[in-house]
Amino acid sequence: MEFKLISIATLIIFYGCYFVKMLRQKKKGIQTDQIGKDKVGFVKFVEVTMKVAAVLVFVAEVVSIFIGTSYVPVAVRVMGAVMSVAGTIIFIVSVQTMRDSWRAGVPKTDKTELVTNGIYQISRNPAFLGFDLLYIGTLLMFFNWILCILTVFAVIMYHLQIVNVEEDFLLAAFGNEYLQYKKKVCRYIGRKG
Prior knowledge:
Layout: H1 2-27, H2 41-67, H3 74-98, H4 126-141, H5 145-184
């Protein structure tokens, strides 16, 4: 029962943060959801497929939580709970740190700033790291093969979004400033040098 409560709470808080941020930005005239908008080719494919993966894994998580079965030892489930909570905290901190530069997908027309302070000093992609930790943590608490496959699919799609869309966008938008940042901070966690 504790794992169900932890999972439900982390999902509500995580996605609550996501949607509250979207609504606040909408009130300011900012279109947060840029996924697939005004994109073509491989970039559009990656963004749209990432969004589909996110919806599918969320549905699989909810179903898995309510079914409540797991085929892993309690210690693994505890590790999953810790990862889920950590992922939720990391995501919230990253979204707050980005302020109004935060978007889902890359904006083609919006002018944003390159955020390198706070949590972005130890991860170039803490929001994605938060998603990954939440997904993997939920998988460890409620392991089943359908959830496993969808979690792996979503994590891969988030990675493709970073390396094939986000990094190219940031390089084009911020040039040398982004290159210098990239030399100092790892993609997911840690500092270089």
